[in-house]
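Work Package 4 report. The design task specified in the project plan requires that, given a folded chain encoded as structure tokens, an amino acid be chosen for each position. We show below one input record used in the internal validation round.
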């Protein structure tokens, strides 16, 4: 089961996993785009399906998982991939936007996992992969709401890892830097822009997911440069924060000068 299969990483994953023999049940809100994914997925996996579902709505998620279990009997792998992004100073971000991000990026994964888990526990097997982000490891300026949702996802995932491992169920998180998808369509030009050496392709991320399904690692951070930065933050937090502050300070919105998305100089 893959959430957010109508675009980007989720679509790539649906096609790749179907080609590797999986029956894929994908979801998203855009029925037209789900149909496009389904067309490609069914070339190699004729039983696969796509279901219209907003993961931020617990009732819709209940209905979707009940249908998947009724049709296929079980979910072996749940990939919580659906997500939205933003890049805006916190003080300029309205509460509705913040709530929406938390509902989709964090609670969406919670709802799907809550529905799928009982059948995994009953079988003593399963794997839950959560599509997090480098923004779930490092707090980034102008992304407070997004970072909050991904830090929540990571803490929740680590907790679940310990709870579920003894029951035979694996939990993994994938933390990529910026990925070239439609994700940033509304804020691609806002600052600070993503450094190119932190960027990865949707294919690389999809390969990382396939890899954790085999090696059962808890965490993969991509690319290597981001993994290094995340490790630096863990081991030398004060040094890392001082360096990050120098990089970010031009983008902070000052009360007297609130136009500011900074000039980056
Ligand atoms: N692209 C990046 O720079 C980047 C970097 C790090 C991590 N990530 C993470 O990777 C994941 C996938 O992102 P992407 O880059 O593939 O973005 P994308 O191309 O915009 O795809 C996002 C997917 O999530 C679905 N989605 C969004 N809201 C949903 C909702 N309420 N209910 C159900 N589905 C929903 C979208 O489908 P509908 O619109 O049809 O609902 C779409 O299929 C996200 O969790 C994101 O946070 C992305």
């Amino acid at each position: 089961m893959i959430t957010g299969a109508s675009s980007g990483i989720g679509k790539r994953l649906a096609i790749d996993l179907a080609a590797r023999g999986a029956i894929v049940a994908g979801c998203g809100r855009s029925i037209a785009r789900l149909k496009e994914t389904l067309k490609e997925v069914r070339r190699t996996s004729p039983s696969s399906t796509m279901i219209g579902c907003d993961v931020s709505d617990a009732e819709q998620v209940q209905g979707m998982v009940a249908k998947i279990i009724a049709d296929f009997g079980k979910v072996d792998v749940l990939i919580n991939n659906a997500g939205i992004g933003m890049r805006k100073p916190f003080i300029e971000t309205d509460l509705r936007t913040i709530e929406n991000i938390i509902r989709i990026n964090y609670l969406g994964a919670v709802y799907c996992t809550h529905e799928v888990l009982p059948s995994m526990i009953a079988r003593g097997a399963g794997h839950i992969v959560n599509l997090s982000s480098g923004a779930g490891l490092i707090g980034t300026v102008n992304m407070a709401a997004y970072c909050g949702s991904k830090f929540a996802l990571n803490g929740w995932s680590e907790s679940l890892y310990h709870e579920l491992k003894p029951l035979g169920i694996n939990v993994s998180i994938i933390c990529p830097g910026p990925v070239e998808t439609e994700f940033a369509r509304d804020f691609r030009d806002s600052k600070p822009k993503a450094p190119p050496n932190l960027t990865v392709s949707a294919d690389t991320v999809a390969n990382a997911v396939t890899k954790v399904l085999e090696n059962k690692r808890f965490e993969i951070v991509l690319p290597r440069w981001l993994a290094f930065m995340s490790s630096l933050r863990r081991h030398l937090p004060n040094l890392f924060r001082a360096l990050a502050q120098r990089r970010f300070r031009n983008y902070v919105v000052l009360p007297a000068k609130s136009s500011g998305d900074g000039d980056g100089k």
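The radius of gyration is 19 Å. Validation will be extended to a larger panel in the next phase.
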